[in-house]
Amino acid sequence: MPALVPARSGFPVGTARSRTTVDFLPCSGHQKPDYEAAFNRALNRLHEEQRYRVFADIERQAGKFPEAIWHTPAGKREIVLWCSNDYLGMSQHRSVVDAMMATAARMGTGAGGTRNIAGTNHPLVELEREIADLHGKPSALVFTSGYVSNQAGISTIARLVPNCLILSDASNHNSMIEGIHRSGCEKIVFRHNDVADLEQLLRSAGRARPKLVMFESLYSMDGDIAPIRAICELAERYGAMTYCDEVHAVGMYGAHGGGISEREGVAGRIDFIEGTLAKAFGCLGGYIAGSSAAIDAIRSYAPGFIFTTALPPPVCAAASAAIRHLKSSGSERVRHRDRVAAVRSRLDDYAIPYIQNESHIVPVLVGDPEKCKAVSDYLLEKAGIYIQPINYPTVPRGTERLRITPTPFHTDEQIDRLAEALRDAWQKFQL
């Protein structure tokens, strides 16, 4: 990975799917470089390309999810969230909140430092046991976020295996791509969800060469699902390890919330399962589950684990409570599927275009960055509906969209209002 420092041609700036360069304004003699100008030029380019991001100031309300308060210069407004990754509303589940509050009262709010220096707080030990059990693995390791678990985990795994070849799905998340860059290993990208292309690449590499096949179980922008069983069969045939990112699927699929790999009955055939505690489990953090030796090696060598403060005990206790609940309760998942189907049905009534898939994600296609932002603003200001626009580089140009994520708590009335507001926006902006 290139160093993020000024170079002759400028310095690279990471984005979700690409890298761009930003040049300093020229200077001569002893004149100080115009740093502010460089930053402003970078920001201006984002504005020109309709890629500048604006964050809404939102106050979620415990017990009223998905309702929230939008703070504006003119005052407060009540809105309904339609794009949260808190897919099942577990961040406000009574058992999760109680576990966090009780642990904070008993142990305080912070972890006290890295696990290497301050030790491991006991709720974190319990959390890793819960995660390992969820995925049927001997061991698990928790990181501060799902991004870090991919970035640090992938780079460490690949570096520790001599001459490792990484085969990566073309649609893998930026965190996985960064992990590959940091590994310094050779990589080949295979066409998205294309097992024939993957097999050809595996065959060409040869069975004897160490290989790591990386993919996501559920791709969050299109909502499509990977052919996990076929990938596992190819990996076994050609002697490759498998690494599956389940961040958008854990808690959501499988009898116990173990993700698509549990639903398909192939979790035991995957070497590394990576997940998050920040989406369906409603908390914070990421993790990797795998064999005892592999997880211990990551723990011992990954800088992204070694040199960062551990998750606080209250967060760990809350995450454990969420995992335990969703292991035994399927009612949230059943209700969730019903709400997703209801949203799609109402969108069909008004001929609102969305990407068909088998998952819980409903990507509504706009196809124009300026109109996508305009529709998002219109929904928020006129209808009190919050859906963040998804533009390049998160998705390819021409596929800009509104990514709708229904929850078990969205009512029929709220679904009707969403569909009607989208119908009005489609007419207003001539989509």
Question: How does this model look, in words?
Answer:
This protein is α/β, with parallel strands linked by helices and 431 residues long. The protein has helices at residues 35-48, 94-107, 115-118, 122-135, 146-160, 174-183, 195-205, 228-237, 260-263, 292-301, 303-306, 313-328, 331-349, 369-383, 412-428, and strands at 11-14, 19-22, 57-60, 67-72, 75-81, 139-143, 165-169, 186-190, 211-216, 241-245, 272-276, 286-290, 362-365, 385-386, 389-390, 401-404. Helix 5 (146-160) packs parallel to helix 6.
Question: Which descriptors would you attach to this protein?
Answer:
431 residues; 7-stranded mixed β-sheet; single chain; alpha/beta; disordered N terminus; 4-stranded mixed β-sheet
